[in-house]
Amino acid sequence: MPEAAEPTANKTPTPESPAPAERSSLGPPKDLPAGQSYYLGTGRRKTAVARVRVRPGKGEFRVNGRPFAEFFHIEKDRRAVGRVLDLTDTRQRVDVFVNIFGGGTTGQAGAIVLGLARALHKSNPAFEPVLRDSGFLTRDSRKVERKKYGQAGARRRFQFSKR
């Protein structure tokens, strides 16, 4: 017979999850295992797919071979991706290399956020509570609804004529 799940409403913080005041002292990513040159994280959003590689370094950030600020021209997208690095205090401690395809700028930024969060979580599991509480480890599964035949769009109908 399956065991009953524990109630999650009265959970007390565990010693391994950092308190909000300790978040800046999470530390850099752990050293890479032997034979591995980076941590990999895959992120998806709408139709965009991002393959993110993270390694300890000096803060270099390249997207499809171009500097990050040159690739994303919209400040909102730059801030969204930067929040992951700021929250984990790794902006100047890791080098990030992204290969991305598909989608538009907003979808690509969302894919990079998820991929970067997953790669940082692999590099240092202590980042998980911070990233999960901020929603960076959750995939946004919303996609564009397809157009239906006999209609002007996904939900919009053609104008009705009684006669």
Query: Which descriptor suits the 3D outline?
Result: elongated
Beginning-to-end CA distance, first to last residue: 65 Å
Give the strand line-up of the largest sheet: 1-2-5-3-4
Radius of gyration: 20 Å
Description:
The protein has 163 residues and is of the alpha+beta class. 26% of the residues lie in helices and 18% in strands. It is built from 4 helices and 5 strands. The protein has a 5-stranded mixed β-sheet with strand order 1-2-5-3-4. Helix 2 packs parallel to helix 3.
Topology record:
Blueprint: E1 39-45, E2 48-56, E3 61-63, E4 66-67, H1 68-71, H2 75-87, E5 94-101, H3 105-123, H4 128-133
Parallel strand pairs: 3-5
Antiparallel strand pairs: 1-2, 2-5, 3-4
Write out key terms for the chains shown.
single chain; 163 residues; alpha+beta; 5-stranded mixed beta sheet; 4 helices; elongated
In short:
The protein has 163 residues and is α+β, with helices and mostly antiparallel strands. It is built from 4 helices and 5 strands; from the N terminus they run ββββααβαα. Strand 3 and strand 4 form a beta hairpin.
